[in-house]
Structure formats: structure tokens, C-alpha cells
Amino acid sequence: MARVFIFIVAMCIISAGGLKAGEVTERTLIDGVTERVYPDGKRTIVVNGTELNDLTPKPEPFPSGINDIDSKRGYILYHRSASDQVFRFSSPAVEERINKLSTDVSLGEKRHMQFAIYALRDLGKVDISIGALTRDGGETLPKEAVLVRPVRLGLWRNYWDPWFQEAPKLIDTPGTLVEAIKGQSRQIWLAIDTPRSVKSGEYKGSLFIRPEKGEPTELKININVLDFELKEGMWWGIYYYSGFTPDTPRDFADMKAHGVNSMLICPPGHVEPAMEREGNTVKISFPQTDKAMAELKRQGFNRPVAFYPRFLSSRILQMFNRVDGQKFKSIDYYGQGGVDFKAKDYPEDLKLVFKDVCKQMVSHAKDANWPDILWYFDDEPGANDSPNHMIPLEWAVLEYRLLKEVFPQEQTLCTIYNLNVYKTLSCIDVCVGDLWRLDNEFMNYVKTNGSQAWGIKWLCQYNTYNFPRHFAGIGIEKMGLTGFTEWTYYGAPLYKPYDQLLNKEGCSYAYVNGEGKLLTTIPWEAVQEGIYDARYVATLHKLIEKASLSQNASHKALAEEGKKTLQQAMAKIPAIPSVLNESEMDNLRKTLIDSIQQFVKAGIY
Question: For 408-464, what is each residue's pLDDT tens digit?
């Protein structure tokens, strides 16, 4: 780490009175990261020459309505919507103060609640633990069903514009003590994991708050376990580029715990499939991918898996020494070696080799007991006019057509961002489009031609709550998509305070601390919540469908009521790119719960 130093530079500062000399203080935080403070108090951070404005909210006023009990205890408990965030100098409004937290959760569902502590004086370390949660019949939720974790403040850089915040994002491990400092807030995150085996009903208990230098108190907790399990929702997968490493089982388990039900397995381009020329043929193998596919099945992922064997046609040209610099030119494609060619010029003898490679891949997937595969040969072909997109369009025209000539029934997937590309390829079963480009014409044409329309976005770019939750769930339900692909899960790197400032593209859903323990993030928890929002929609859809087929007149009437409820709920979801806030999404979910429970009471489930 660089030596910390301070120096003063003379600058001209523009003010209302014109130009005047001022002093700017700079302090090196680490190599490449410098804090700069202007004479007017404005703070920025300079990262490798790029100045980032500090958009951390200003301190809020000292809370009003402090009574003798508050003063004696030394702190205030309050709840602020995750949409609004709890910053270091957030201060509770009177209406935000709480003495209880409540939520509804279905059997087998994961949910979260959160609250904050505002310190009226220095409290030292604060221990927060959960007590027994018991229902009237005497049954108790397992203690591990509720995890209590503090939210850690850190420096997070905006992906698009030159600014950063000290903001809540990282969620610490259970058992981490909170340092409560006078005039500051600390947010606490509760993760609820309801076993499928528990009895439904309202479970009540307390959260115990024990400060080192203040009075202990209890926060009442009510968890209403609903009397149904959610139905399966849409296909929801994440790009995974790590091949298979010692951390892969942990990564897969983390994704599954957050509602992900499939994966896009994307091994490094020139690594897998491993390819070896033998005379006029090529033999392939999948040492890493076999392990990844087996791990997916071991952990219970049961949806088709997209597999991305990149550069196949280019690698065959290279292996057979057909790169001539004219019709077949070597190119650097995102740091890897590809070949620029026109599909019509691909050698006939190598088309046979490519088809044989396809036969080997399909046969191997069956013999090795892989999940059902969506063959994903090329990414974003023809997305725009740049070489990085037009060259892959030629690859895609060739590769998907050759696969379908050999295996018409094998399922294909491709990221396609405009209708002309879909028409050009004409053999894509799952069309994955950018959410902002999936207009009605595009989606209607794709569906009319028998393909599925899925969405893609990078929700992890957003260091907040609303956007990831909305577009992980109800936002894509509103669009009528049947699947969603998230780009990407970067694994869980070691958390270092300045890393995300240095590399804005290095945002991750999860990190590990110095002890190797997994740390989650608020956007990742929001994604989980969004996936479950969508499963409530899917559950109501399926119950309506089941009731509609019943010969019972009351069931048919209930189906019609359910349809109205669902239509009204969908009407409340705004068109892209607008999003609902946490309260609006929670209210929408409550509407769905009430409707689902009517079906359950009628014996329809």
C-alpha cells in the first residue's frame, strides 16, 4: 500500500465572484486512488486520472422526538425502505421508528427484512442475536432459519457516470459485531429461510440488541408462514465463465440459494472443448465442463443448461492450416484468436469436420449425463455494425445451420438484439434479447415462429435495490418473457475496499472476507427477492389454469377472479425502464398472496 501523504496545490477556483486562488488537499489512499478535497469542502476521488464526484448524501438532521427512554437506552431502532438506503449519517424520522418487524413467507421460501440502529451516543460494540420463534401450537422455527447480519458501508463507483458513494452494499457474516458511533446509523439485514417441513402459521419471537455501552432491548419479530409452496417460475440463469475450480461448488450453491435455477456454462474459448486433430478428424473432450455439469446435477439444478463452446469454426480452420490472410484472416476477438471469414466461403471438407464435432458434443452430453443442453455457439451476432459483432454473425450463420442439419431437434440459444438477425439465422429456439430492445414487434415475431423470448441484463451493475429486484422478477413478467439470463457471476473475489473504484466493471454479487467466508450484497438479495416475486406470479397463473379446467362452477368463478387480480397487478407495473420501489413491490406481492390463498382454501393446489 502506498505511503499516505498530503500536499497542497494552488488552483483557480471559479466562484460567484469570479476566479480566486484556493488550496486543494490531496491524500493518496492506495496506488491509483487519491482523495481530493476542495476549499469549499467538496470531496472527490481521483482514480487513475479520472475524477469521481462524491454523491454520498449529506448528514440528515438530528432526530426529533427523543424521549427519556431513548436517552437512557442510547439508541433508536428504525426501518427505512431498502429503496431509500441507510447511509452512515442517515437519521430516523418519527414515522420510521419501530418496535416490531413482520413479514409473510411461503413454505421453502427465502426472504429478508432489515432495520437500522441510530446511536445517540457511542455504544461500542453491539451484539444482535435472534431468539426462539414459536407459533401457538408450540412449534418453533429452527434457529438457523433466520440469519442476522450487519450491512457494511463501502466505496462503490457508478458504472456509467464519474461518481461514487460511500453506500450500504456488502452484507457481513452472521455474528459480526456492530460498532455504533454517536450520530451514525448501522443497517442490520435479516435473511429468512423457511423450511418446507414447518407448519404454517404466525411465528413470534424477539431480536436481542445488546450494546457494550447502552441498555439492551428487544425488537419483536413476527414471521407468518403461509400454507403453500410456490410453483416453479421461469428459466433464470447466470453466465458462469470460471470453468471448474475449487470454488465452483460454492458459487453454484450461492446462486441456487438466491433463486437461480440454471446456468450458462461458458468455459474459456480456446480451452473447452479440448480439441485435438487426428488426421482428417478432430477429437474433443470436456474435462472441466464434465465436472461443472455433474455439480449442477448434484446440487439439484433441473432446467436445461446453456453451453457456450466458443470459436469452433475458427479453431477448426486454425487446426487445418486454412488461415490464408485473404478469405480467412486471423483476428483478435476480445483477447482471443478468431478467424474472420464469410460463411459462404467455409471449406466443404471442414464443414464435415464441424458436423462431426457437433455429433461428438451431442453424444458426449448424453453419455456423460449432462443436463438438457441449449447449444449457444455465438454471442451477440450482428448486434451492431462493428467487426466485433458482424464477424460473429458469419460464424453464427454457419455454425447453427450445420448443427441443425445434423440434429434438427437439438435446442439452440443465441443472444439476438434485432429482428433481422433472428430472421437471418432462422434456426434459433431461444432468442435472448436485451431488455431495452425487446419491442412488441420483435417478441411477437419470435413467438409466432415457435421460439422462446428471453431477456438479458447486467443487474449487478446497479449498486441499489429497486432495479435488480424489479427486473429479476415482475419487470420481466410484465414483458411476457419465459426466461432471463443475467450477465454475469464473477465468482466471489476477496473484498478489498478500493477494488470497485479501480475497476468499475469488476462489480460482483458476492465476495469473501479475509477468512474466506462468503459475503453477500444488497443487489444480490434484491435479485433473490425479485425471483420470488416472479414465482408468486407463476403460482397464481398455474392455479388459474388448473381452476379453469375444473368442472366445478365455483372453481371456474374463482379462476375468473384470479385473472382479474393478475391483470390488475400487472397493470401496476410500469413499462421499461421505470421500476417500482420496495413498498410497491411488497404490496403487489401481498395482492398475489391473498389471491393464491383463496385457491388454497378452495382445495385448488
Answer: 999 999 999 999 999 999 999 999 999 999 999 999 999 999 999 999 999 988 878
Instruction: Name 468's Cβ contacts closer than 8 Å, sequence gap at least 6.
Output: 459, 460, 462, 523, 524, 526, 527, 530
Cell numbers linked to 360: 461428438
Strand partners, 229: 107
pTM over 0.90: yes
Question: Is residue 249 within 8 Å of 240, Cβ to Cβ?
Answer: no
Strands 511-512, 518-521: pairing is antiparallel
Query: How far is it, in rounded angstroms, from Cα 525 to Cα 170?
Result: 10
For residues 543, 544, 547, 549, the Cα torsion angle rounded to the nearest 10 degrees is: -120
Residues belonging to the chain: 605
Which residues, other chains included, contact 93 with Cβ-Cβ below 8 Å and sequence gap of 6+? 63, 78
Domain ranges of the chain: 6-54, 68-229, 312-449, 543-601
Q: What is the pLDDT of residue 463?
A: 78
In the chain, the amino acid numbered 370 is: W
Which residues have a Cβ under 8 Å from the Cβ of 177 and sit 6 or more positions away? 125, 126, 127
> Which residue reads 448524501 in cell numbers?
57
| CB 167, CB 156: distance < 8 Å | yes
CA distance 262 to 255: 9
The 10 Å Cβ neighbour count of residue 509 is: 25
Yes or no: say if 26 and 36 are a contact pair by the CB < 8 Å rule.
Answer: yes
Homologous superfamily of the 68-229 domain (CATH): Immunoglobulins (2.60.40.10)
Contact (CB, 8 A) for 530 and 538: no
**Predicted pLDDT at 504:** 66
What is the DSSP-derived secondary structure letter of residue 58? P
- The residue that leads in pLDDT, 105 or 160, is 105
Q: Which of 568, 539, 559 is nearest to 602 (CA)?
A: 559
The amino acid that residue 193 corresponds to is: D
DSSP state of 117: E
CB contact set of 523 (below 8 Å; sequence gap of 6+): 169, 459, 460, 462, 463, 464, 465, 468, 509
Residue pLDDT, tens place only, 233-254? 999 999 999 889 999 999 999 9
Q: Is the dihedral of CA 134, 206, 105, 566 positive or negative?
A: positive
